[in-house]
């Protein structure tokens, strides 16, 4: 078993419950970890035998571009797509962070963490 991690995927999009958030948008950061059997690709040196992290990054960017009120909803969509589109992933964890959230205080970010196992 092995892990592939994508750290700090940065996107600007418009999630949030407030109408202003939908209009103005804000910065987000996404961290993604997947577990899979990486032994075949370690031996073969072939992309077809592993989890393509270019594809994982694309999934995150595409799902983050779809407006949601809740970060939990976005994180769930990301996980569902990963399991649907990559059969060798056995576990995935996604952390979606809103940078400078409108909380009425000085908060660097708020993060939602969800995980799924096959």
Automatic annotation (TrEMBL):
Top EC class for this record: lyase
Domain Dihydroneopterin aldolase/epimerase: 4-116
Keywords: Folate biosynthesis, Lyase
Enzyme Commission code(s) on record: 4.1.2.25
Pfam families: FolB
InterPro entries registered for this protein in UniProt: Dihydroneopterin_aldolase, FolB_dom, GTP-CH-I_C/QueF
Annotated pathway: Cofactor biosynthesis; tetrahydrofolate biosynthesis; 2-amino-4-hydroxy-6-hydroxymethyl-7,8-dihydropteridine diphosphate from 7,8-dihydroneopterin triphosphate: step 3/4
Domain of life (superkingdom): Bacteria
Key word Transport present: no
Reaction(s) this enzyme catalyzes, per UniProt: 7,8-dihydroneopterin = 6-hydroxymethyl-7,8-dihydropterin + glycolaldehyde
GO MF entries: dihydroneopterin aldolase activity
UniProt similarity note: Belongs to the DHNA family.
Function: Catalyzes the conversion of 7,8-dihydroneopterin to 6-hydroxymethyl-7,8-dihydropterin.
Protein name: 7,8-dihydroneopterin aldolase
